[in-house]
Amino acid sequence: MLHRLFGKRSRAGSPAAERRPRAPSDCRVYAIGDIHGRLDLLQALHEQIAADCRARPHEGSDTIVYLGDYVDRGPSSREVIDCLLDAPLPGFAAIHLMGNHEEAMLRFLDDVEAGPAWVSFGGEATLLSYGVRRTPNTLGRQRFEDMRRQFAAKIPERHVGFLRGLRLSYESGDYFFAHAGVRPGVAISAQQPQDLLWIRNAFLSSDVDHGKVVVHGHTPTDAPEIRHNRIGIDTCAFASGVLTCLVLEGDDRRFLATGSADWSQHVAAQ
Questions:
Q1: Burial of 182 (0-12, 13-18, 19+ CB in 10 A)
Q2: Of 115, 145, 165, which marks where a domain is finished?
Q3: Are residues 155 and 214 in the same domain?
Q4: What are phi and psi of 228, to 5 degrees?
Q5: What's the predicted TM-score (pTM) here?
Q6: Do 21 and 8 share a structural domain?
Q7: Mean pLDDT, consecutive 10-residue segments, the chain of 270 residues?
Q8: How far apart are alpha carbons 208 and 99 in whole angstroms?
Q9: CA nearest neighbour of 29 among 82, 94, 88
Q10: Nearest 5°: phi and psi at 218?
């Protein structure tokens, strides 16, 4: 599926800027939204990206930016991390950003007290993917201590290293990539990790120029959300079956996606 966006009006009602934001002239950027344990969709989208590169050869380099939330909710969190570690798109520069779900996962590895919060918003699916089961006849803290002990024994060291090495943000041309967004009114260079990973309403409702167009996931929508200051590409893949990729090349923007969603009406409204 492929949609092209040219000179559209933003959902906030502001006309598109006279000078459109640009990716670097020597680089094509592919940004992938929240995967949440859907290895099947990730593999299908990788195939689309590879096909896109073959169909559109160019002189520059290719970069793929993963916006975080690789784990939880879907059935294959462990396998998703294996896939990302195995560099599935040879020749691409791969940028892996941290999501709030990876942060919560690491907190549980470091502190059993973080277990209830993580499990309550999707972490149990990740534990199951690593072969961790709730211990029968245990309650409260003891249950989470047992689960954490199993988890620490079963998660590969290379997975822990991958998670601890995730970046919080990435910049390319006129675009800034972060999992959740940015704090309006704060310089891009001064953003705090809590906001980059967790912010929601203050960012989503803001019409402020952030200095760069922010490409983010974190907040699911039925279709990509394109505004003059941000582009949201979390299309709730774990439930919808639609995993989204934003393609940036020069001042061009287009989308690849899994599934059969038709975004033509949403795009026409931008």
A1: buried
A2: 165
A3: no
A4: -65, -25
A5: 0.90
A6: yes
A7: 38 54 95 98 97 93 98 98 95 97 98 94 96 76 91 98 98 98 98 98 97 98 95 97 96 91 48
A8: 23
A9: 94
A10: 80, -50
